[in-house]
Amino acid sequence: MSAIGVEASSADFSEAGVSVASVVAAVRRTYDSGRTRPLGWRREQLQGLIRLLAEREDDLNAALARDLGKNALEGYLTELSITRAEAEYALKHLAQWTRSTRVPVPLGLMPASAKTEPQPLGVVLVIAPWNYPVQLLLAPLIGALAAGNAAVLKPSELAPATSRAVAELLPQYLDPDAVVVVEGGQEASTELLAEQFDSIFFTGGERVGRVVLQAAAKFLTPVTLELGGKSPAVVLDGNFSAIARRLVYGKLLNAGQTCVAPDYVLVTEEAAPKLRKHLVRAVAELFGKDPAKSADLGRIINAQHWDRLNGLLDSGTVLAGGRGDRNSLYLEPTILTDVSPDSPVMQEEIFGPILPVLTVKDLDEAITFINARPVPLASYLYTQSAAARKTFERRVRAGSVNHNISTVQLAVPGLPFGGAGASGTGAYHGKYTFDTFSQLRPVFTKGTALDTLKVAYPPYNGLKRRLLRRLL
Ligand code: NAD
Known about the structure:
single chain; alpha/beta; 2 domains; 16 helices; 19 strands; 41% helix
């Protein structure tokens, strides 16, 4: 068995005769058999994932288009190629990452040897959201497999076509006894969280993050939380047409449903008129005069989110955009000005194509504004001034600091990706994913032929005391 569905209720689920508990137990048996530990097995899994992403690109893109209206190139760039690059990077570095490292032994304990070696944690659970339903499910899996773990994956029910595609495809490319997909929504998650895992990797909102953390506490399971928040962009100076394009691109990728999208802009009063003009131009430049006709702009995930977003449009003056069509889940890219910090759009992560632009006096006021709110996942500063960049780096609280770009930092596998405070705990990408799913286990070895430790045992006479103090 490799993919099961928990679509309606746990009653239906048990009627199907397959319990989540038995699925998790089967994966644990695979892990306990030792099958996932050899490097050969790990390599095969990573190669399998790479093949899946190459051979089934069309199937996955079709699913992404159905769920999110993602065009094939955006699907390729932001989901498939980024995930494939992660898998290739892990494959390339696997031998190096898994190697043990010698650690020097203090004189008093010699002769002996000490080393650290990364060990798999066991059976890991990955719970993913709907906005990047391929990448956010498979990128954590890559590190989990590279580290020698078995895994249970729970895709989001709100991206059902992608959930189905992944559940059907993974068993064809990966060891189906060690990697299992459990489909379903809250009830499936709840059943999974009642089971004991050795690590839980959760990507999603703050509310469910709390539920996951509470469930994990019962078993003292380590948890990685990849949450969201309101990531600010501060604009001081620079090439305004480039700045506007970078903000608009970062914001409108996946129709604004990106965890690190610039949520709102803080611009100095001096720079505001120029920025506003260029933002309006940039939207037209990237998505045409009528973005509804653009094949490159995604759609809102469902009517509930569309209604939520539509309700935020009254939070300021609509400088551009503001239209939409609930039936087709289209929402026009919208720039809002005259936005009060107390307005609804400034209360929670927007997660849609609405960009509020607020003015501040200077960088100091912008940093104070940001630090007075929950710690965001990312922060963006647009300026040519090295001194301003340094001040921002030193003072702003955020999961990451990025200068003169928005959102594209995710494509650097060498950078850890994660939040701080309310935006999450732990980080991944590249080697960091491997580390997240490994225990760096120390191993200390000493022979018995020569019992040098005798000197440390009582009774402690004057000579021993002096010797021990010198040696240790
Ligand atoms: P969500 O928290 O509603 O759902 C995430 C997952 O949790 C889904 O698989 C869902 O089925 C499951 N779930 C829902 N209710 C549950 C419950 N009561 N108990 C256990 N599991 C439950 O998030 P979402 O709406 O799918 O995604 C949007 C959020 O995710 C945004 O806040 C966004 O910022 C965040 N996000 C973060 C990152 C990141 O990498 N840090 C990436 C993408 C999205």
